[in-house]
Amino acid sequence: MSLSPPRPERPPVEPTAEVPPESLTRPADPIVLSCRALRVWYGTALALRDISIDIPRNQITALIGPSGCGKSTLLRCFNRMNDLINGARMDGEIRFDGQVISGPDIDKVSLRRRIGMVFQKPNPFPKSIYNNVAWGARINGYRGDMDVLVERSLRRAALWDEVKNKLDRSGLDLSGGQQQRLCIARTLAVEPEVILMDEPCSALDPISTARVEDLMDDLKKDYTIVIVTHNMQQARRVSDMTACLMLDDSSTEGHRTGILAEFSPTNLLFTNPKDKRTEAYITGRIG
């Protein structure tokens, strides 16, 4: 099944007393990704149990929790990257822009164009900076002006001024922080709607981390971002919503199963958590 294009926004409406002006720019559906009763297995091991969550459009949602609780597994469900892992399977329902994407007949290539991913370790190709950015667009049949696309993507990734005079140099020659922003530019070049980031700053120094965080804040005007992070200070700085995943203490099957303990606005989760497990994790009593 091919992934249908995004649903068109409602046509403009003249402001009236009944229609406040700010509502004219809101998308018809504020939720871009959602899952219901999601379960994920690796072989016979249940990795995630009964996850239900709604990811809001044009916001940054952080996934936090102790190691092994399934944060990256959940992230990879949103663009079906787990399908590339031998023995991985899932049930439950995932929707993207209202369309079910968890079935076996979904066009995964089309899905991954619309839901891009930035990995933990910067992974530029052994190609020039220019060709790193252009690569995805080329293989997807982009027919526009490639020079314009490359420049626009590098500008949006806050990298253009640093590389504009050396586009023919290898992307591997860049610093770690620059490489990560190059990978973000490569993702932006295929014009996704959602960007998934799996600990994108864990291998970066503080200055590079700050640049990537500033970039995320700027990008959410046009994209929805979901980020996995072990850095709770980072989650507090950059995210609008935070989901805290925990290990299921009731599991008796001899393996670790992740569950959703709490999902709420970031400022509320960190200042007034509703779940005792969330409070124990963010205060460092468990980790």
What fraction of residues sit in β-strands? Answer: 15-25%
Shape category: globular
Using the CA coordinates, give the radius of gyration.
20 Å
Give the distance, in angstroms, between the N- and C-terminal Cα atoms. Answer: 41 Å
Q: By helix and strand content, what is the structural category?
A: alpha/beta
Biggest β-sheet: count, sense, barrel? 6 strands, mixed
- What does the average pLDDT come to? 88
| Widest β-sheet, arrangement of strands | 6-7-8-3-9-10
N to C succession of SSEs: EEEHEEHEHHHHEHEHEEHH
| Model regions low in confidence, pLDDT < 50 over at least 5 residues | 7-27
Helix coverage percent of residues?
Answer: 25-40%
Oligomer: single chain
| Tally of individual helices | 10
Note down, in words, how this protein is organized:
The chain has 287 residues and is an alpha/beta fold. It is built from ten helices and ten strands. The chain has helices at 71-77, 108-114, 129-139, 146-156, 160-163, 176-188, 206-219, 232-238, 266-271, 276-282; strands at 31-42, 45-56, 60-64, 88-96, 99-100, 115-118, 194-198, 224-228, 241-247, 258-265. Strands 6-7-8-3-9-10 form a six-stranded mixed beta sheet, with helices on both faces. A four-stranded antiparallel beta sheet has the order 2-1-4-5, covered by helices on one side. Strand 4 and strand 5 form a beta hairpin. Helix 3 (129-139) packs across helix 4 (146-156) and helix 3 (129-139) runs parallel beside helix 6. The N and C termini lie far apart (41 Å). 38% of the residues are buried.
